[in-house]
Design goal:
Length: about 170
């Protein structure tokens, strides 16, 4: 009987925990973002006296947005989470004998920050509308597509790092 942790089990655990975290956090984000967009639609139409029409539009938007949110949010969240969890496990693999749950959580956090920075530098230049005069509205696409998902993914990858050594007899909890 060997006391060395099974490398494949840690990789599988990273893959599973990553996909679980990605799916849950993408679903939570979708459940928060869709009503927030609806509320923003209603609030922005109050000065024009079209609040009731906007309320109807927000309801129809929510009905249509949830199925698309699954396709463009939850499924990619599961896939990115699985890939991230696998990579966190792969990064942790050479250091398994010296890692604690706290250290793997730091690896997950660092991976989440790097992932968020890459997304920021690659995707954000076109998302800030310089023609918009309202300060918050000019950043709304950036907040919706980059900032808040980056926050969620960093939290998720930190959780994956924390859970990657679960039930591992070699880890120094």
């Amino acid at each position: 009987m060997t006391t060395e942790p099974k490398k494949t089990s840690i990789l599988k655990r990273g893959l599973f925990q990553g996909s679980l975290a990605g799916g849950i956090l993408a679903t939570v984000y979708m459940a928060l973002a869709i009503p927030a967009v609806g509320i923003l639609l209603v609030i922005s139409n109050i000065p024009a006296g079209k609040a009731f029409d906007a309320l109807l539009g927000a309801g129809f938007f929510a009905i249509c947005a949830f199925p698309f949110g699954i396709i463009i949010g939850v499924i990619p969240g599961i896939l990115f989470g699985a890939l991230g969890g696998f990579l966190i496990a792969l990064i942790s693999l050479p250091f398994l004998k010296n890692l604690s749950k706290f250290k793997t959580a730091l690896i997950g956090f660092a991976f989440g920050i790097v992932f968020a920075l890459i997304a920021h530098f690659v995707l954000s230049p076109g998302l800030i509308d310089q023609n918009q005069t309202d300060t918050i509205m000019k950043y709304l696409p950036y907040l919706f597509w980059i900032a808040f998902p980056s926050l969620f993914s960093t939290i998720g990858f930190t959780w994956v790092g924390l859970r990657i050594l679960q039930n591992d007899p070699q880890s120094s909890n």
